[in-house]
Amino acid sequence: xxxxxxxxxxxxxxxxxxxLSVTRTIIAFARxxxxxxxxxxxxxxxxxxxxxxxxxxxxxxxxxELAVRMQAPSWAHWLGTDRIGRxxxxxIIAGSQISLQVAAGAVVMALILGAPLxxxxxxxxxxxxxxxxxxxxxxxxxxxxxxALALVALxxxxxxxxxxxxxFSSIPRYARLVRSGVLTQKEREYVxxxxxxxxSSMRILVRQILPNIMAPIAVQLTLDFARAISVxxxxxxxxxxxSVPYISWxxxxxxxxxxxxxxxxLAIFPGLALVGVILAFTLVGDALRDLMDPRMRRSLNTPGQxxxxxxxxxxxxxxx
Length: 320
Known about the structure:
mainly alpha, MetI-like fold
C-alpha cells in the first residue's frame, strides 16, 4: 500500500482533526453509556470545585471558631463543624484542591519518567530494552502504597515528595504501555516510509509513533488519577501527608475517628467526597477503555465516516 506522507507544517491541522474526531466519538459514547455520563458529570463538578471552590467558600478553612464547635449540619454550616469550629464544607472544598494538585503532579511525573524509558527501550531494543525491563520489574515487585510510605518516611512530606512517592510505582505501567505500543507501531508502513525519507529514529519516535499510542495512555492517566488520590489520602490518614495549612481528606477522616459516635458527619462527608472522586475517575477510565475497543468504535461511527483513535489509519499518521 502506498504510503501517504504528511508534511510537518500540517501538524496543527492533524491535531485539530484528531481532537474533533475524538470529541465527537466521546460525546456519542457518553450518550449511550451511563457510566461515562455519570463519571463525566462527577469529574467536571470535582474539577470545578477544586479550581474555583476555595475562592467562593463561605468560611476560612483553617480559622477556628470555638463558639460553633461540633455543630451538626445546619443552614449556617451545611456539613457541620469540627472540634474547633471549622466549617466542614469549606475544608472539603480546600481538600479537593490539594488532592487534585497532588494527583495531577504525580500522574504527570509518572508519565514523564516512564514513557521515555519504554519508548527508547522498545525502539532501540537489545541491551537497552532488557535493562529497562529489569528495572521496571524490580519496581513492580513492591506494592505502590508500601513504596510511597517508604519514600515519604525517608524524605519527609512535601508536595514534590508526594508527587515522586506516588508516581514512582506508576513508572513501570507507562514504560510497559508505551513499549507495547511502540513495538506494534514501528513495524507499520508509515514508519518505513519515514525511514525511507531519511528521518532520524528519534524524529520518527516523537513525531509519528508516540501520537498514535496516546489513546491507551489517556486511559491509564485517568485510572492513575483515582489511584493517586487514594494513595495521597492514605498517606495523610497515616500522618505522612501534608501538614497545616494544607488540608487533606485523609487527614480530616483521621481527625474524625475519635468523634465517630458523637459527630459522625466529620468522617462521613470527607469519606463521601473521596469515594465520589475515585468513582468518577474510575468510571471515566473504564468508559474510555471500552471506547478504545475497535468493536465499540465501529458501532459509534456514522455511515461514510471513520473515526480513528490512536491508530495509524487517520491523518495523525504518515500512511494508511
